[in-house]
Write a structure and sequence with these properties.
The chain is an all-beta fold and about 300 residues long. It has two domains: about 120 residues; about 110 residues, 6 Propeller (Neuraminidase). The protein contains one helix and 25 strands. The strands form five sheets. Strands 9-10-11-12-16-15-14-13 form an eight-stranded mixed beta sheet. A five-stranded antiparallel beta sheet has the order 1-8-7-6-5, with no helix packed on it. Strand 17 and strand 18 form a beta hairpin. About 40% of the residues are buried.
Length: about 300
């Protein structure tokens, strides 16, 4: 408990005011996808109606990693840090165009990853490097370590909440299987482990409270694909196969749960930059969203930006 209080004391937020590179880029007319780029630091926003891509001037001098969007507060959480330095967490407010330093660790051991907002909009969950799951209450500014019970696993790579916020999916550290649990009070209680027949299982995203979209490959396959699994009967369905898409650990389901945006490139195109793609949850309508990835050196970590 003393260690937790000491950690909280180091997390006093500092407000950094930044402006957008393109005036007006934060005022979306409709649904948009925000993503990061490889090698060239920056966060970009793709207008799905016009196809136009603009850059948001957010902490642009540092490498930027995973993103998540909070529709209720209209803010974006992202990971950023200098090369080989501890990662910090920032929150960008689309309304005020300001970026808040949300969490800065005292050392590399204190780094946090994979920012994920709870559906209630009041809490931000982070994965600690080898130290479990952490929750930040946005209203009280308090941190706590989340207890994960009924499992021997203590190291996780990703966390995802069902639309109701009652169910949780956790990616195991070795990408072997996904843990399904429930939020009971402030504790995650694991109920079962699924998808042991797959390799490199990652990016679980919920459709309702009983279906999960994920990226993985079967043991005898080299390329990852998008799949869904029903938690009612454990049946799986492959979504991407013709043309085959190499799907990595970056995907997101739209607010209306009809569409999936993900990072991928055609199988065999080993030197092709990864671009953003779109496909319906039922596996139809595969479409490439970005075609100029060479200008950005790859498009990653897409998140839907849609106001409540």
């Amino acid at each position: 408990m003393a260690k937790v209080r000491a950690t909280q004391a180091r997390l006093l937020p500092a407000l950094i005011v930044l402006t957008c590179v393109v005036c007006g880029c934060c005022h979306m007319r409709g649904p948009a996808i925000v993503f990061v780029t490889e090698w060239k630091p920056g966060i970009h926003i793709l207008d799905l109606e016009s196809g136009e891509i603009k850059k948001i001037g957010v902490h642009a001098e540092c490498e930027i990693g995973d993103l998540d969007y909070n529709a209720r507060r209209n803010v974006l959480a992202f990971v950023s840090g200098e090369h080989e330095a501890p990662n910090s967490i920032y929150i960008y407010d689309f309304s005020t165009k300001r970026t808040e330093l949300f969490y800065r660790p005292a050392s590399q051991e204190g780094s946090r990853y994979r920012p994920t907002f709870h559906p209630d909009g009041d809490r931000l969950f982070l994965i600690g490097g080898g130290s479990g799951v952490f929750e930040h209450d946005i209203s009280t500014k308090r941190w706590r370590r989340v207890e994960v019970t009924n499992t021997k696993d203590s190291r996780f790579l990703q966390i995802s909440f069902s639309k109701s916020g009652k169910r949780v999916a956790l990616t195991r550290e070795n990408f072997n299987g996904i843990l399904i649990g429930e939020m009971i009070g402030g504790t995650i209680v694991i109920r079962k482990r699924i998808l042991d027949e797959f390799e490199y299982t990652s990016s679980p995203r919920w459709v309702g409270d009983n279906e999960i979209v994920f990226s993985a490959n079967k043991v005898d396959e080299q390329s990852q694909s998008l799949w869904t699994i029903s938690l009612s009967d454990s049946s799986t369905r492959q979504l991407t196969h013709d043309p085959p898409i190499r799907s990595w650990s970056w995907l997101v389901v739209s607010k209306d749960e009809r569409w999936i945006a993900f990072t991928g490139s055609g199988v065999g195109e080993t030197t092709a930059p990864d671009s953003l793609w779109l496909i319906s949850v039922d596996g139809h309508g595969l479409k490439q969203l970005t075609h100029d990835a060479e200008n950005f050196h790859g498009h990653f970590s897409p998140v839907w930006v849609e106001h409540d």
